[in-house]
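ok so i was messing around last nite and threw this chain in just to see what happens. nothing serious, just curious
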Amino acid sequence: MNLSTFRRDVLTKPIFAWARKVLPTMSDTEREALEAGDVWWDADLFTGNPDWDKLLAYAPAALTAEELAFLDGPVDRLCAMLDDWKINWELRDLPPEVWDFIKREKFFGMIIPKEFGGLGFSPFAHSEVVRKISSRSLVAAVTVMVPNSLGPGELLMRFGTEEQQQRWLPRLADGRDIPCFGLTSPEAGSDAASMIDTGIICKGTFEGREVIGLRLNWHKRYITLGPVATLLGLAFKAYDPEHLVGSQEDLGITVALIPTHLAGVSIGHRHLPAMQVFQNGPNWGRDVFIPLDYIIGGQQRLGQGWKMLMTALAAGRGISLPSLSAAGAAYAARTTGAYARIREQFNVPIGKFEGIEEPLARIAGTAYLLDAARRLTCAALNQGNHPAVISGIMKLHATERMRVAIDDAMDIHGGKAVIDGPQNYLGNLYRAVPVAITVEGANILTRNLIVFGQGAIRAHPYLLEEMNALGIPDKEKALDAFDTAFWKHVGHSAANLLRAWGRSWTGGLFAPAPSAGQATRYYRQLSRYSSAFALCADMALLTLGGALKRKEMLSARFGDILSELYLLSAALKRWEDEGRQSADLPALQWCVASGFRTIENRFAEVLANLPNRFVAIILKFVVQPLGARVVGPSDMVVHRCAQMILEPSAARNRLTPNLSQISDDGGVDRLEKAFLLVAAAEDIVRRMRSAQLRDRDAAVKQGVITRAEAEQLAAAHAAVARVIEVDDFAPEALSPIYKKSADVHQFFQELGSTRAAG
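result:
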């Protein structure tokens, strides 16, 4: 007996038997979700020893000349056509001319290759288009992004037959067909496997000929573009009770194309998601018959729908909502910084108060972080990767952090953001936030189950290999495969034990890091945290096994650590890619300090709640001997970060790039003009304050300022007054039951009586 045989038979065999009992089992849908997409930088983070030179070597996401021309041409023209107040409160839809423009300029076909009549844009170009449009109108942004995300187009390009691609992609590209995708049912939201929508394989008549096909019955809701769609992508469970295509009766989730004009298709009335008027609604099908070649990918794709959907979602979730969220944070930074600069209380711009600086810094830091992560993720997608775990991280954290940024922006604006009207540039974005939180995988589910639950298996160097080995029917082959993977895993864990111990007790002093100037020390800390994460994750899996699936709070904390590692990696790469801009350093410092605080707190929470207390004590000694010590950004960092958006500068522009800027005398246009005027008049104001003068004419008479400067100051004050004013409405414009009356008290008495009677 050689050494390897001895190891397998004596050491590995009992571990193999134990592992079969404790390691998490996978359902078919879980396995298909895991196999969808791929891993990227998340896998490096799971090693415990990420190669930072590899990260920095990735080419940054960039636009081609054609893509840039589209942004500066059709996208800008589209933005100029959009009046968000009119769209949401008067029309309750995009104007017909906007719909025509979107179709004509092929906004629905951005991701469709040129050979099929589309624009053939990269994921980054798709992201940039969504980003710019969303800073002007969320309704228009959602309308554009959905056909280019999860939908028939993406699925047809990846899985469609050549005939299907030739038939449908040109029609989707030029807007002859408007697509939607029906996945969510009243009975099945997050648990898509429980859907009761069915497709029964049978014989039927289609377009005058008898064929084998599917008789479909379904009920879907929350379907974006559903009310106006002409081509419905549909997910359902396929069954073959008569065994017309094979011996198996239950075939699994399948996706097919359903032209909405077919008999039996019913399009319901519109939903109104949080007062957002993008087209959204339910649909039904009753005994709708389609031939088998309407299955995306044809008959051979029967039952493969869930894997197809997860593969498409792995890309889409990394682009659409992260782009919208990053734009929302940048928009909040640009508008709130400007407002905090021009709005004065106690004769001081409110942005100078420390109580305002703190949320301002949080907004600015969030904008820097989210756009960094968006760009890094798009770089991966541009290279042909489809990182499923990273896409989950992006959807979750981009939308959650946008929520915080918008909340902060609302607080700083106060009444200006609360009073609705054409001049309110924040209220609609605030109302829309819950939609982003909920769609494409609810954030609660994503945080608690997906980021670490899938990441631990998918991105771990050996865990999936071990689980696959356990599932091999042949016991001897299974034992051989497990033996190989397991002892690699042991070596990996041992190495991380030593790394984590050494890096934790030295504060990461000797951890690997590239030469990155002032940011070098941040790489060392991330290397330290990565090794600690890899070790703690392994120990949690070892001690809990399959029970970890039910420890959702533990799983969520591990997911938070992994997410912070990825987001901070993105921030550091952005800093490097942009040439280590010293003016941007406060934003990076804020991101790092905030992220490190979260990482250390989550480690402390994991160690405090790990059921195996002996292991928890050992881990605490190794990875966090002094407890959670990072308290977040210093007051000086907060101050400097807030200052980035309080003055016109190149740093402010880098922080908030590629937002729509239309000169239309709207709320944002007025704000930006007032901001520039106030900043330009700062020296004039300073001289008047030094002279203890508030009256412009008196200052001119005393020679403190010139007449031209007085007029400049007057223009600035007038511009500010126009910004801080809010909209009001005639009573009859707001209430259909209003009756003009000279006695206002009588009106409200009558109003109360009317409501009571109703």
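not much to say yet. The chain has a mean pLDDT of 91.
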